[in-house]
Amino acid sequence: MTQRVVIVQEYIPTYRRPFFDSLRLIAGNEGWDLKVVAGEPRGAQAARGDASSGADVHARTVRLHVGRRRLELRRLPHEIRDADLVIYEQARRNLDAHLALRSPRRKVGLWGHGFDHSPGVSPRDEALLRGMTLRADWFFGYTAAGVDHVVSYGYPAARATVVNNSTDTTSLRAQLAKVTSSDIAGLRGPASPDAQFVAYVGALDVTKRIEFLIEASELVARDVPAFRLLVVGDGPASASISQRVADRPWARVMGRLEGRELAVVLRTSSAIACPGAVGLVAVDALTAGVPIVTTDWPYHGPERAYLSRSNSITTDNSIEAYAQGLTRVLQDRPLRLALAEQGKRDSRRYSVEQMASAFGEGIGRALAS
Fold first, then answer.
1. Is the pLDDT of residue 264 over 90?
2. Which helix (H) or strand (E) holds 364?
3. Which end of the chain has fewer surrounding CB within 10 Å, N or C?
4. Could you tell me which of 324, 281, 335 has the C-alpha nearest to residue 304?
5. Would you say residue 253 has pLDDT above 90?
């Protein structure tokens, strides 16, 4: 009998679709019936403008608010409710996951960070996340650090899989290879020949600390006249950031870019600036050979683990120290090239194909356990 696997998502961002496409190929080879169920983005998620239509089944989402807490319940279609394995995101707000974890009718997996990277997490919130994780039949961790964390509080290591969360690095490398000198000249525009570009790439929300970046950039622009900042992304803070830099000749807000347009930005930039939460931009930066400059802020995403002293720069968490870090990478070309080359080597560990392979292996073990 064909085994049925369901993966439930809040919504599917564009960057996640290639992973699900790769996982579907593995499911076909293994003989599983795989369905990806997703709702529609709302609020801050919708403001990012990155939603994809890559779901197999649309789920109607009911959103509840209890005090400050937002809860979400996705109603799965009847024909897939009795799947052999249902995998939910490891998030406290997923009421459907809590309900499924208390049901003996099917195996339930969770996938996610392993621990909460958000500021202001209470001991009660941490206990709630631990409790739901310990009930799961299988855990798929974004990184090894996440799996180590859940194992540290008692989750069985034999029922955990490290997937190494990734973007589509294969496609990105192909796009980077197509970028021409005229593409770069077009982006540079009338900038002087010695202009040095730094890019921010990601969602424009409070966790990314764009205001911090702008204040640090003021200092960099004072000391490095050739400095130019490109802000690439969209989100709730987009309008306020555009207004904030409107009279800064060294800054440009470009909106959300992907594919060839993003590749041109990466090829033109000397560094990626990310003083706030480092996430999957780490994978893109390593792949493109563009060093990330970040801070020792304690609330990074799990992909921060992909960065090291040999492929990136981490400064103290102050505007002055961060400005010095950006200035250093711009002015020290041998350092910048060394970081870039190591980043390219390290990036070979990450791809959606490898991620899907690890995830598929975990699904197979979960179904057989």
1. yes
2. helix 352-368
3. N
4. 281
5. yes
Same domain flag for 174 and 68: no
Residue type, 294: T
pLDDT number for residue 305? 96
Same-domain pairing of 222 and 309: yes
Cα–Cα distance for residue pair 204/206, rounded to 1 Å = 7
101-115, 148-162, 266-280, range with the lowest pLDDT: 101-115
Q: Within this chain, do residues 183 and 323 fall inside the same structural domain, yes or no? A: yes
pLDDT score for 79: 65
157/49 same-domain check: yes
Count how many domains the chain has.
Answer: 2
Q: pLDDT band for 194, please (50, 70, 90 cuts).
A: confident
- Rounded CA separation 148/155 (Å): 9
Please tell me whether residues 238 and 264 are part of one structural domain. Answer: yes
| pLDDT (tens digit per residue) in 65-81 | 777 777 888 877 776 77
Q: Are residues 125 and 232 in the same domain?
A: no
Pair (260, 282) in one structural domain: yes
* Strand stretches in 117-238, DSSP E: 138-141, 160-162, 196-201, 227-232
Measured CA to CA, the distance from residue 266 to residue 169 in angstroms comes to: 13
CATH of residue 52's domain is: 3.40.50.2000
Backbone angles phi, psi at 159, to 5 degrees: -115, 30
Q: Are residues 113 and 205 in the same domain?
A: no
Q: How far apart are CA 242 and CA 112, in angstroms?
A: 32
265: domain range? 169-347
What SS3 class is residue 17? helix
Share above pLDDT 90 across residues of the chain, in percent, rounded to a whole number? 77
Q: Looking at this protein, which amino acid is placed at residue 180?
A: T
Ranges assigned E (strand) in 105-195? 107-112, 138-141, 160-162
| Tokens, residue 237 | 């803070």
**Token pair for 282:** 């780490």
